[in-house]
Amino acid sequence: MKVFGSAILMYLFICTLSFSQDAVVIGSRLELFVDPFLVDSSEGLIFKLHPPHPREIAIVHNEAWEGNTSGYHTVFEDGDLFRMYYRGSHHDAAAKTMAHEQVVCYAESEDGIHWIKPNLGVYSFAGSDDNNIIWIGEGAHNFAPFPDTNPACPRAEKYKAMGSGEDGLYAFVSADGVHWRKMADTPVFTRGMFDSQNNAFWSELENRYVCYFRSWSGDGYSGYRQISRTTSTDFINWSDPVELDYFGAPLEHLYTNQIIPYDRAEHIYMGFPKRFFPEKNPMQFASGGVSDAVFMSSRDGVHFKRRLSAYIRPGLQKEQWICRNNMLARGLLQTYTAFDDDSKELSLYVGEGYYQGESDRMRRYTQRLDGFVSLHGDYDGGWFVSKPLIFRGNTLLINVSTSAAGFVMIELLNKEGNPIPGFSLARAPKLCGDDIAMKVHWNSSAVLADYQAAPVRLRCYLKDADLYAIQFKYL
Q1: Can you give the pTM of this predicted structure?
Q2: Closest CA to 148 of 121, 183, 113, 124
Q3: Nearest-CA neighbor of 407 among 388, 385, 387, 425?
Q4: Which end of the chain has fewer CB atoms at under 10 Å, N or C?
């Protein structure tokens, strides 16, 4: 009772705070707490980054046309299949050169866990076409495909890709994701560096194609590897580049970007850049530098909240402290968990063993749905009050995890911050458990849908709990 009594005092304190008046229209969309966008005021809570969990090895690049520098992976769901694309290449340490021509490889999976490399017969390698190669030539170094969801996209161009040559970015198209051709004989974009994975997609949010690519900030060796973006309505003609902004976060070398719209909330862009420290070499490897991976998110595609703590650390494997490791594949897959209950989680894939032996590999990691960042309350608890929200629905769902001792309590306030009858703290039960979509209820006969027209606020108390996302829906 002492902890809860302190919470009530905090509750009364927050009631005296001044509130901003601009309402945020969220309708029925899923809103994640990857940033403070919905939060007006808070006390005793922090935004907590949640690293993913390493699982099994997903794929080993041990074919003759692959090798220990295979990389720049892309994964996406496509109907009943999961597709994976990557560069096949091998570095001969003794000769200090590439052992064979770089090629683009393809793998597929029915579950995102077990991957196969089909014999496609598209290209010949060492006199045989029994391989999974789907492209050889310009652009193979960093070929990055995606399924084009533009409603106006012709069927023959269902899949598109970017890949760089010596003079810029080339555009590619395919009807089946296996047989590819250039859209133009010359580069479609030249104003960048491009010696990394350059990712494009159709943005429903912006109603245009967006491409995030490698750029450089500063002069010569005093600068930093950075990320810029360009947009297009036809995938051929692209706008002037714009360098990303990180709200004042310090400049760091960002080697890749892996930016995508989050498919459960496409108004939020997420990036998983490989962060590079060229001056560090704890393993005294021939090529210096070490990397980890970071998480960032944006609501406008230009300004990103970049978490400075690592999303993925190199860890206990000594080889992961060698340069070019810990690079994420571009893409998140929804896959079934190991529990026999049809629940899903996110699978992402991280590179291991780069430059080591005869082959490198990708390890699968898993993340709770929406579980990148939470509003976290420790055992002593804390509050937050949302901005005024305009919603649509008759039910409030929360993605939440509590301990056995912890709980969540939510009340509805009017725009001025006063409790709405029937939805006050006195009517709010202590909700505990772990659920991607927990229904919030109150001990009253009041109807939530009656308050859709006017802005409302949420006041939420968290004790030993993490709140990842909220959503109003009709159920």
Answers
A1: 0.94
A2: 183
A3: 425
A4: N
Residue 31, judged by CB atoms within 10 A of its CB (0-12, 13-18, 19+), counts as buried
* The token pair that represents 360 in the structure block: 């490198």
Query: What is the rounded distance in angstroms from the CA atom of residue 213 to the CA atom of residue 371?
Result: 26
Q: Are 345 and 285 in contact (CB under 8 A)?
A: no
Nearest to 162 by CA among 136, 185, 140, 191: 140
Find out whether 347 and 332 touch, Cβ atoms under 8 Å.
Answer: yes
CB atoms within 10 A of CB 304: 25
Residue that the structure tokens 């970071």 belong to: 294
Topology adopted by domain 61-367: Tachylectin-2; Chain A (2.115.10)
Kindly state the greatest CA–CA separation across the chain: 77
Angle at 109 between CA 107 and CA 113, to 5 degrees: 110
Contact in structure between 388 and 456 (CB atoms under 8 Å): yes
| In contact, 381 and 60? CB cutoff 8 Å | no
Q: Looking at the domain that runs over 2-50+373-473, which CATH code has it been given?
A: 2.60.120.260
pLDDT at site 109: 98
Question: What DSSP string describes 348-359?
Answer: EEEEE-TTSTT-
How far apart CA 468 and CA 376 sit, in angstroms, is 9
Q: How confident is the model at residue 222 (pLDDT cuts 50, 70, 90)?
A: confident
Model confidence at 368: pLDDT above 50: yes
Please check whether the two domains, 2-50+373-473 and 61-367, share a CATH topology. Answer: no
